[in-house]
Specification:
mainly alpha, 2 domains, 3 helices
Length: about 70
């Protein structure tokens, strides 16, 4: 009887761990294909904050965000 409970608990823990890693891998690939922010959005945000966006500054911010994603 206790063996059945032990197998059930182990199967549940293995399922939770496997589900977590599959979901994590899926979300990483999704975010890589569909980044949450692009240059146009970044430019609009800078204008709304009262900054004058230069292409150099936008490129710096995009590269910093891409580094952080990896």
């Amino acid at each position: 009887m206790w063996q059945l409970i032990l197998v059930g608990v182990l199967a549940l823990l293995a399922g939770i761990a496997l589900g977590f890693f599959i979901a994590r891998k899926y979300m990483m690939s999704y975010l890589k294909k569909n980044p949450p922010i692009n240059e146009q959005m970044l430019k609009m945000m800078m204008v709304q904050m009262g900054m004058k966006p230069s292409q150099k500054k936008i490129n710096q911010m995009m590269s910093a965000m891409n580094k952080q994603m990896k």
